[in-house]
Automatic annotation (TrEMBL):
The active site is at H279 (proton acceptor). Residues 11-387 form the FMN hydroxy acid dehydrogenase domain. This is (S)-2-hydroxy-acid oxidase. Belongs to the FMN-dependent alpha-hydroxy acid dehydrogenase family. CDD domains: alpha_hydroxyacid_oxid_FMN (cd02809). One of its GO terms (cellular component) is peroxisome. Its cofactor is FMN. It comes from Adineta ricciae (Rotifer). One of its GO terms (molecular function) is FMN binding.
């Protein structure tokens, strides 16, 4: 992988400076049905829109006259972030969220292309239950990349679990993740039923031949159909969380928390982390935006006896968004659609560039806010959330 100006593949993408540039380019390249599947949300898409708008409503209050020159050193490690009780280190506080069927946008390599970029950036890739490449194959590529190309990478894989009606099969998925070296289970809890995605209904969305949820196929089971809906279990409850906790010793992180009461419960049920998420606006429309939900969740967990990590996703498109999330108490953000835009535009190189852009923007934001370290972002009281302005008038 190369920096933007260094290779011919990047020549094609040199005008792409930010995530929105990649989004526009991906839209040009993808078939309408695929683009709509990735880009849209549920009902009137108000939550989808508000996830991004809410970041824009938050203002930064930078500090000056602080020496931030250490950021400019070649081996600068100022953006490195420790998570899960310092058991994992990531290159900067940005993780690849689980998203379904990467082979829809990069037919040849799909999730393998994504994992190569994750290794290069020392970050975590969350591999979806709805991955179009099996979790075994992704893990094998992850190991190979580290061994052959990036021996110093601290990248890890997390397995994103949907609890299926068939609990035995669900258990098998967890055991396969353990066996293949996944470092955590990311349990998604906001999909008791699929959201109402009207664009997919209009387009009669179906998976093309050859693309399917590869994790859900083994010699005894085949859950795969042309529909992308897997058999979610609407009976999922806290007691299933206890069951999952009892059958694996991997760290357990739950994704899809919005309400502070749920965050408190999660701590009491022994999880190691929560992701404040509304599934990128694809589930309950008019749900609170995630960055607006974050402060109450942080408050709730900080009042508990045991400390856990809080992550947030939804609408992160700029390095300043990452800085705002950290300033409000998140350990790191997850990004969903930006990775898909990168993948659609230029495969591994595209995902690499997306991470590189966000990392550069994040570092710049740190410097302009007078932050030498990630801890400074937390300590410096940098965000103001109650100042109104109307960006459409600017
Ligand atoms: C096309 C698409 C597919 C997704 N698939 C999954 C999935 O399989 N499992 C899951 O937990 N979340 C899934 N998500 C939600 C993402 O993990 C994440 O919460 C969301 O994309 C974050 O918002 P952003 O796209 O604005 O960054 C999906 C999101 C999109 C857009």
């Amino acid at each position: 992988m190369h920096k933007a100006s260094e290779n011919s593949s990047s020549e094609r993408t040199k005008a792409l400076l930010n995530i929105e540039d990649y989004h526009k380019k991906a839209k040009e390249k993808l078939e309408k049905m695929t683009y709509d599947f990735y880009s849209t949300g549920s009902d009137d898409q108000l939550t989808l829109i508000d996830n991004q708008a809410a970041f824009r409503r938050i203002k930064l209050r930078p500090k000056m006259l602080i020496d931030v020159s250490s950021h400019t050193k070649q081996d600068s490690t100022n953006c490195q972030t420790q998570i899960l009780n310092s058991t994992m280190t990531i290159g900067f506080p940005c993780i690849i969220a689980p998203t379904a069927f990467h082979r829809l946008v990069d037919n040849e390599n799909g999730e393998l292309a994504t994992v190569r970029a994750a290794v290069a950036h020392s970050t975590i890739m969350c591999v979806s239950t709805n991955s179009s490449t099996s979790m075994e194959r992704v893990a094998e590529e992850h190991r190979r990349q580290i061994k052959e190309n990036y021996p110093h990478s601290t990248s890890k894989l997390w397995y994103q679990l949907y609890v299926l009606k068939d609990r035995q099969y669900t258990q098998k998925l967890i055991k396969r993740a353990e066996k293949n070296g996944y470092s955590a289970i990311l349990l998604t809890v906001d999909t008791s039923v699929p959201g109402n995605r009207e664009c997919d209904v209009h387009n009669n969305f179906t998976l093309p031949d050859g693309i399917r949820a590869e994790n859900l196929i083994d010699k005894d089971n085949n859950y795969v159909s042309k529909s992308y809906h897997i058999p979610f279990d609407p009976s999922l409850s806290w007691k299933d969380l206890d069951w999952i906790r009892s059958i694996t010793s991997l760290p357990l992180i739950i994704k899809g928390i919005i309400h502070p009461d749920d965050a408190r419960q999660a701590v009491r049920h022994g999880v190691q982390g929560v992701v404040v998420s509304n599934h990128g606006g694809r589930q309950l429309d008019t749900c609170l935006s995630t960055i607006d939900a974050l402060p109450d969740v942080i408050k709730a967990v900080s009042n508990e006896n045991r400390q856990i990590d809080v992550f947030v996703d939804g609408g992160v498109r700029r390095g300043t968004d990452i800085l705002k999330a950290i300033a409000l108490g998140a350990k790191a953000v997850l990004i969903g659609r930006p990775v898909l835009w990168g993948l659609a535009v230029d495969g591994t190189q595209g995902v690499y560039n997306i991470l590189e852009i966000l990392k550069k923007e994040f570092r710049l934001a740190m410097m302009l806010c007078g932050c030498q370290t990630i801890d400074d972002i937390r300590k410096n009281d940098l965000v103001v959330t109650n100042v109104a302005y109307n960006p459409s008038k600017l």
